[in-house]
Each structure stands twice: as C-alpha cells, then as structure tokens.
C-alpha cells in the first residue's frame, strides 16, 4: 500500500475547474421511465456482463439525485459532469428530470456540465447509419432549448474511440458488433454527429462547447521497427483518428479506405471550432508487432489477426482492473498533444481520470489521484493550457461489461441497500479543493 506524499499539491491557476464525472446509464436506474437503449438489449444477452447484472436500478440516481447533489456540495467541487440519456429524453417528460437536476446543481453552487451522449444509444438507432448523426443533432437542439438558460458548458460525445472499438469492432460493449476495421464508419458518423451537435448548440446560443475523447500515450514494445510501426498504427487508430479531424480538419493518412466514401465532405462540419478539448485519461498502452495470438487489453481480449498486439506494462503498480498506474504518462500525453496540434489545440480539460480499487479506506486511489494531479500541474508548467480536472467517478456504478465488479467511486455504493458512504478519497479530494481555494 502506497501513501500519497505529504507535500501540498502545487497551486493551480485561479478559475481552474475542479469536478467529478458520471454517466447516465451507469448511475441513473429508473429504466422503466425511459425508452430502451442498446445497452439494455446487450445486457439482456447471457454472458455479456461479467456478473450478469443490468443497469435497471444501478445507483437509483434518478430517485436519489438530491442526496447525490448534497454529496457534490459537500465535496466542494466547482462542476459536475453527468450525461443526458437520449432514450430518456425521447420519453414524454424525460427532460423534466434533467431540468430538476440542473436546478438543484445551480442551487448548490455546482456548475452542470452535461455530456449529450455517453454510449446509451436509443435501441433501434445505429451508428453505422449516417442518419443517426442527424437524429442526434435534433435531440441536442431539444436539450439545449430546455437547459441552455442554465447550462453554460457542454460536452457533445464521450469517447467515440472506445464506443467504436469496444462496441462495434470487438463486440465487448453494446451493440456487440465484431466488425474489426469495418467498424470505422461508426467512428465517422459519431464525429459527424459531434460536428452537427456543435452547430445545433451554437444556433441555440449555448456557451462553451467541448468533447470528451479517450487518449493515452502509446509506447512501442521495443525500438524494433516492427514494434514501432505497430505502435504507430495503434496510436493512429485510437488517438489520431479522433483528434486529427476535430483539430486539423483532416483524417490521418492510412484510414481513408476504411471510412465511408464521402467522409471527406464532412470534415468541415467535424472541425467546427471547439471552445475546449476534453481528455479522458487512465493509462498508457504498450503496443508491439502482431503475435498471431489473442492479447489482453485491460481485461478486453484483442483478437489475433490485428496488425498490432497490446503488451503488458511492467514495473508499475496496477489497479484492481489491471491497468498500470503511470502518472507521468499524463504529462507526456499532454505535452505531446501540444507539440502535435500546436495552436490548433484549444484549452484542455481532463474530463475523466480515476481508478478501480475496493474498500472504503482507499489509499491506493488517493495515491493514484494525487500522482495524476501533480502530473497535470507539470503539464501546465510545460506550457499546456489546462483548465480543469474531473475525477471519474463520484459514485461506484455500473461499469459496463464488468457490471458492479469494478468500483471507481469517491463514494461507495452498497448495491443492495443503495446506501452511499464517502470513501477516504472523498475526504482527500475535499481537502485538496479546500487548499486550492485557501
Ligand atoms: C471510460 O472509458 C468511460 O468513459 C467510463 O464510462 C468508464 O466507466 C470509465 O472509463 C472506466 O472504465 O491499456 O490495459 O491500461 C475508459 C476506457 C479503456 C480506458 C481501456 C483505459 C486502457 C486499458 N478505457 N483503457 S490498459
């Protein structure tokens, strides 16, 4: 067990946004009061979720949001990142819940930062179809019309990279497709949906707009050419495929034939200027040449036959999920981003960072977060314009294909009684925030 150092965390600039994140499907429950999503269909299939659970109740947040807002207020965060469930908004009265939540947050002095899509696509819609992007923009316009008088910071999508990889290429997340490289149209249509959503939000006069993309440094398994090339390809697929069109207005070379034929014509929409860029960061990935066998990617099986293989990172502690704890890789990621995108990179917000550990006295989580906040400060000192940091997550929740077996919360949830209990890390983060303001 490692303890956080006792040196105070360096001071972040005034106005730096401290927050915590959640997502609708992972915490809300109240599944009977919304349309089904692709995740409801997926979890109903045997064998899809490790503990056979569903998110029908989850943290029952819809009925307990007052208690959760009080936890946010007690923590002293500036902002709360949650997601709006598109299937709930499609249900008559569904927006009322978010209306109340936003009111309660404002009353508690916590700034609401909604994400408009965090993987819970309405059942019957499909990211392989271009029309889904248009439907999304209509829904976004509806949400902005209702919440835009109080919400001044928006996130369009959460991690289209992971939704494409895990949901459409490898089939370990909903909708459970195993299309490998044929999944890329789903990526393009999400990026198009993002661009159309930015336009819909701007048209409604909404404030600061960003996206939350999953990124991490890719480390070649060795300096050998085959490993370096494989790592470069992985970096292209998971990082550049999503950042380049948004920030540079073009797709990286080498993916053209995998995208829909007319993709180029959409780049102007996709590259609509952003007010800020959200980065979800957990761990670096070590990648080498293919080995002709399955490999393990943070608990996910990567099939043989891909042009790369994910390798274990040795020499670092790992979380309960098996992901390595490498705070320095966050500094590396951000300084590399700044070098690659230069002035095209808008101010950055870390929209997710966190780890899964068991227990209420979660000193390992404290060590993880402490290390990453310091690493973020080093990126700031190195000239990266970082404006905020959000911990994933406020609550233990439905961790997708892992069900309730991985706990990421600052607050423990007993999934029998739904009782919330702040962990040691909650108290630690509260003191960090207090010291930053003192
Ligand atoms: C996020 O996805 C999601 O947005 C959120 O909903 C989810 O609850 C949270 O993370 C926790 O999983 O290379 O072996 O170290 C993050 C997706 C996939 C991040 C794999 C890190 C690397 C594993 N991630 N990953 S490894």
UniProtKB/TrEMBL annotation:
Catalysed conversion reaction: Hydrolysis of terminal, non-reducing beta-D-glucosyl residues with release of beta-D-glucose
UniProt xrefs under InterPro entries: GH (IPR017853), GH_1_N_CS (IPR033132), Glyco_hydro_1 (IPR001360), Glyco_hydro_1_beta-glucosidase (IPR017736)
Alphabetized Pfam families for the sequence: Glyco_hydro_1
Keyword tags: Carbohydrate metabolism, Cellulose degradation, Glycosidase, Hydrolase, Polysaccharide degradation
One function term, GO molecular function aspect: beta-galactosidase activity
SUPFAM superfamilies tied to this protein: (Trans)glycosidases (SSF51445)
EC number: 3.2.1.21
Assigned protein family: Belongs to the glycosyl hydrolase 1 family.
NCBIfam families: BGL
Protein name, entry field: Beta-glucosidase
Species: Streptomyces viridosporus T7A
Lineage per the UniProt record: Bacteria, Bacillati, Actinomycetota, Actinomycetes, Kitasatosporales
């Amino acid at each position: 067990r490692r303890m956080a150092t006792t040196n105070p965390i360096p001071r972040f600039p005034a106005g730096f946004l401290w927050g915590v994140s959640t997502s609708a499907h992972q915490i809300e429950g109240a599944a009977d009061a919304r349309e089904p999503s692709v995740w409801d269909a997926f979890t109903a299939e045997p064998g899809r979720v490790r503990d056979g659970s569903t998110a029908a109740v989850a943290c029952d947040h819809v009925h307990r949001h007052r208690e959760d807002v009080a936890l946010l207020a007690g923590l002293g965060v500036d902002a709360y990142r949650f997601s709006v469930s598109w299937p709930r908004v499609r249900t008559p009265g569904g927006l009322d819940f978010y209306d109340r939540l936003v009111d309660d947050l404002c009353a508690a002095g916590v700034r609401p930062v909604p994400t408009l899509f965090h993987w819970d696509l309405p059942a019957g819609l499909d990211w392989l179809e271009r029309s889904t992007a248009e439907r999304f923009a209509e829904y976004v316009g509806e949400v902005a019309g209702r919440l835009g008088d109080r919400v001044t910071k928006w996130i369009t999508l959460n991690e289209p990279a992971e939704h494409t990889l895990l949901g459409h290429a490898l089939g370990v997340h909903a909708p459970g497709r195993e299309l490998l490289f044929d999944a890329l149209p789903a990526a393009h249509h999400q990026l198009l949906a993002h661009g159309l959503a930015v336009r819909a939000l701007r048209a409604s006069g909404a404030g600061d707009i960003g996206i939350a993309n999953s990124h991490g440094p890719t480390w070649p398994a060795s300096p050998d050419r085959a490993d370096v090339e494989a790592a470069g390809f992985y970096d292209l697929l998971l990082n550049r495929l999503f950042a380049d069109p948004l920030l540079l207005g073009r797709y990286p070379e080498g993916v053209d034939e995998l995208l829909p034929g007319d993709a180029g014509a959409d780049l102007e929409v996709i590259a609509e200027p952003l007010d800020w860029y959200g980065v979800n960061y957990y761990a670096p990935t070590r990648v080498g040449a293919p080995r002709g066998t399955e490999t393990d990617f943070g608990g996910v099986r990567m099939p043989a036959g891909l042009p790369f293989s994910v390798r274990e990172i040795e020499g670092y502690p790992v979380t309960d999920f098996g992901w390595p704890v490498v705070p320095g890789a966050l500094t590396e990621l951000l300084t590399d981003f700044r070098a690659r995108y230069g002035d095209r990179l808008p101010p950055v917000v870390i929209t997710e960072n966190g780890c899964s550990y068991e227990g209420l006295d979660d000193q390992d989580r404290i060590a993880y977060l402490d290390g990453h906040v310091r690493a973020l400060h080093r990126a700031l000192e190195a000239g990266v314009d970082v404006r905020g940091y959000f911990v994933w997550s406020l609550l233990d929740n439905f961790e997708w294909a892992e069900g309730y077996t991985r706990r990421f919360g600052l607050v423990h949830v007993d999934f029998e009684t739904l009782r919330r209990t702040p962990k040691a890390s909650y108290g630690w983060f509260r003191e960090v925030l207090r010291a930053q303001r003192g």
